[in-house]
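retry 2 of 3: previous attempt timed out while embedding guanosine-5'-diphosphate. Reduced batch size to 1 and resubmitted. Inputs unchanged:
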Amino acid sequence: MDSKSPTIAVNNGPETQLQVIDEDQNFSEQFHYYMKHVWGLADRGFDYNMVAVFGSQSTGKSTLLNRLFGTKFAVMNEKARKQTTKGIWFSQASGQNVLIMDVEGTDGRERGEDQEFERKSALFSLATAEVLLVNMWENMVGLYNGANMGLLKTVFEVNLQLFHDRNSRKGKTLLFFVIRDHVSKTPLNQLADTIKSDLNRIWSELSKPEGLESCQINDFFDFGFVSLPHKLLQPDQFNQQADALRLRFADPSNPQYVFKQQYHKMIPADGFPKYAESIWEKIVSNRDLDLPTQQELLAQYRCDEIAAAVFEAFADAIRPLKPLLESGRLVDNLGEQMDHHRHTALTHFDKNASRYHHEVYSRKRKEHLAKLNAELLLLFLAQIKNAAKRSLQLFRDSLKKRLGSTTNSSASSPPDYDFATVVKAASTKVLDRFNEQARALILEDTDWSYTAEAEQLEQELLVITDQLKEEEIKRLQRRLEKMVQSKFTEEVATLLNEPKEDMWSNVLRMFLDVNEFEEKALRRMAQGLDVPKPELDRLIGQFRLTSWEALYTRIREETSDQMMLVRLRTCLEDRFRYDEQGIPRVWRPGDDIDGQFGVAKESMAKVIPLFSKIDVDGFELELEGYFPSSFDITDHIELLSPTKQKELAKRFQREADALYLEAKRSVVVTTAK
Ligand code: GDP
Ligand code: MG
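retry 2 succeeded.
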């Protein structure tokens, strides 16, 4: 609205006055533009004043205003004393932050018409101006029934209408009487007394609305009086006194300075056009008009307008942050940036809006703040989300680096770290960091919280920890498997190569010892990993099964046909080809080869059945509950079936026969020499 350039009809430069209300009582759309660009008053806050003028037609009102304020209001031509136009004009006092309002119109009272406009302009003046100049000829003073007193009655009446609620009324208006053509010898104070007593009489005769019955004229008005000499007859004196009067409006250090704080209507300059417009609209439509309500409405309107403008700038300022956050980035100093943008938005709002109706302003400020916060909350949540994601990644990476560092180490060496300690340290570090990042984002005057996100992060860290724990356990299990396998590889061969009565009991003893040793490592690790007892029991049971499986597999390798034949042959050779002292036999004629061979073969006959199965007899107690209950060890001890044993015996027989024949032959050869 204010940017709209006015159409200026005059050729000699821009007009400094504006017809704010035209003959058809329309309110000008250019008021805003003039306030801002022509008069430069829009940014002055409360630092401006306003004067209006009142009085019968052709009493020299416009002439006076022009003389006092350097304005250029139209003055009625001497020759054409019939002025027909009416309207309300505004201008700015030359070089001052003062708005001047001039009313133009037919003198309805004298012509018996249109007192309506007079009433309307009186209302409008009282609602806006601090000082109301009441212009009258000296010879009108004391004419109680004259036009001027009629006008003042109107002023008083409409004034009461403006302040329905006595409590909400603040300040006063200065009625400043300017007595023109003061030519008589009557001193000013006497003229003033006459006017005052007339005013009191009018006031007492006024019917006052409910609630204001007992109010006094001085509750609403202060009075000032000044007189000026005849402009045409005493031009020098007129000029001199007009200059003195001018200073009372222009110079705040003047002891008679008219603009007292209490007269100010407290309408911030940037809201003045809107205020004036809504007041006029009410006046024209004859609706109830009370100033406090109008000021509240203005405050709502302006606060919204100010907030909207401020919010737009705020939205522009934070816009670049959104894509950054959406791409998963953590924005540096986001908390500070948000605080800064919000602070700026609030400061700008406060600067302009705080001048308006206090309650409305406070309420609107809350709304404004809530809107800013709602916008910032999105950034806050996005950053929190990114921070949580980043934390998980950090946790995973740091643990992988730490825990993975020993995965390549040899199977037999235990890990050089304590899992629980490493995880705890990493998790604390990550959570602390997250909380710190989140805390830095919390702005004052918000109910923002990140506890839910922190809890969720903690949960997710636990899930990752569990995964890593599982991996760690698997790693250990693999390591233990390898260890028992390598132990069994050596031990089983050694033990089985001595097929004696206690062979199986030695194997089982070895098995139990190896397991016990490795289980210690498992228990140690479980303690470090905080593995609960039932889970540990399960792990141990599983380990024992695996271990047994490894043992069983190893023994089956050792009892394959090939290995059994080798073993049997070695045994036979040990018994047949070597004597009791372990010295190789040299068969001589007459030696009892058949007898020796028979003895050896007889002892061999017991060896094959020894390998028929892993004999667990004698270990019943130790094996009771050793394996998980689902495991029946008797299903995992068979080695050589009876058929297999027969087949082996048969194949071995041939080898034995060959050995026997070789022995016999060696005697023959020796004899032949
Ligand atoms: P307005 O209708 O009240 O605004 O009066 P104007 O300012 O238009 O003046 C009306 C006429 O009165 C003009 O012809 C002026 O020259 C004349 N006039 C202005 N000031 C004075 C004054 O102080 N004394 C006298 N006698 N005439 C004046
Ligand atoms: Mg005039």
